Amino acid sequence: MYKLTHHITSLPTSQYIQKYRNPEKFISFCQQCERYNRCWTSSPFREEK
After folding, report:
1. pTM for the whole thing?
2. What superkingdom heads the lineage (predicted)?
């Protein structure tokens, strides 16, 4: 039997970026998409360095 639970927390944006955001890892996946660089939501311009 499965039990579903929800956990909610908050953290500062800077901590989220430091711990969970990794554009170097995922950019290659994005570049394989046919919409990459054709749509503002999937362009390299969204990368923040």
Report:
1. 0.44
2. Bacteria
